[in-house]
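For the sake of transparency, this paper describes our internal protein records without simplification. The record that follows is passed on verbatim for readers who wish to inspect the format:
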Amino acid sequence: MESFTKLGITSEIAKSAQNKGFTNPTKIQEKTIPLILEGKDVLAGSKTGSGKTFAFGAGMLQKIEKQNYPFGLVLVPTRELAEQVGKEIKSFSNIKKVNVTMVYGGVSMNPQVESLKNTDIIVATPGRLLDHHRSKTVNLSQVQMLVLDEADRMLDMGFIADIEQILRQTPKTRQTLLYTATLRPELLRISAKYMNNPVEVQVEQHVSKEKLKQVYYDVRNHQKMSFLVHLLKNEDSELSMVFCNTRHQVDLVANVLKGQGVKALALHGGLTQNKRNQVMKMFDDASKSKILVCTDVSARGIHIDNVSHVYNFDIPRDPKEYTHRIGRTARAEKEGLVINIITQNDHQNFGRVEQENRNYDIIKKPIPEFKQLDIDIRANIKNVRKKGFGKKFSKNKQGSQGSSSSPKRKFFKPRNKMKK
């Protein structure tokens, strides 16, 4: 606790950090908390899972003043992250009896309207916050502290115009904190336009090869699903995330896994918010399911502890997404394993990942013996449709089972790094 109080936060807030399992400040906490308490604007490079929520949350709680309007505002890219950040701030705000309101779409506005009448801190997605602003159910004119959390992902999701509109509704004298995994030119423009002499903080984000191992298996197209089932049944893992490129592929893979006796949950943007919350609750309870099959969009901003394995069933088209995916594991000094299952259809995307991330050591592994399962993909597609997961199922060119009709194109040959 003493190591936290040395940063300037009160012993009560430091104790809440201890209760959350922080024995010592993380690098981002150590570098940014003193600056936040000094009232500086901060531009911080930090990935998910680095402890930044406690950094800005502790600073906000210590500086908060009760007023008739919201004091603090945290903007996040997704509904799931709004829930997680809001709950985390609530968990160490009991000592000051601070009211925290989570604002996001996919649910009724009415409960949010009631909560906004007497709130101190708002954690919101940009779109729904603007809905409230247009309905005049929120007043941002007295916001003293504003946080842009995972700003690069909000940029990727097309929220830049919404963010600027929100920034214009808040006082120019506010304190602004911007956290991002990658510092893009557009974010630098926002920083120059809307922040007051921000202090730039960069935290080393390199994960040692000893902690994070990355491998790939090059299998035949018709073997891909069977090989995934084999790995999930035989790998010794805590929690695992299986990434697909489309929501249809997510539903198909999850349906096949369940049919093979593998407890798997599907998460994508086509689910209702209540269903998404239910899925995340079940995944948090590892006794109910240790495997989450998801898309990049649905997984953005979700903070999940104890993910030991990341499976790329589809290789992402955008190499940046690969970086976000592997950042899900090897956190808090724990070991992690990334497994890429590629077929000929994935070579182009995989080659792009390797070209743009030459610092990654992705090792080719020999394919172990495994049982080729008799999986009727068409029957599984019909089952997916029947359950209402999607009105139509389009063939996914990234690893579609048994397809030989994909268009001819130039493939990159993966680096052959055989390791015994």
Summary: The two ends are 45 Å apart (CA to CA). Residues 390-412 have pLDDT under 50 and may be disordered. The chain has two domains: 2-202, 212-386.
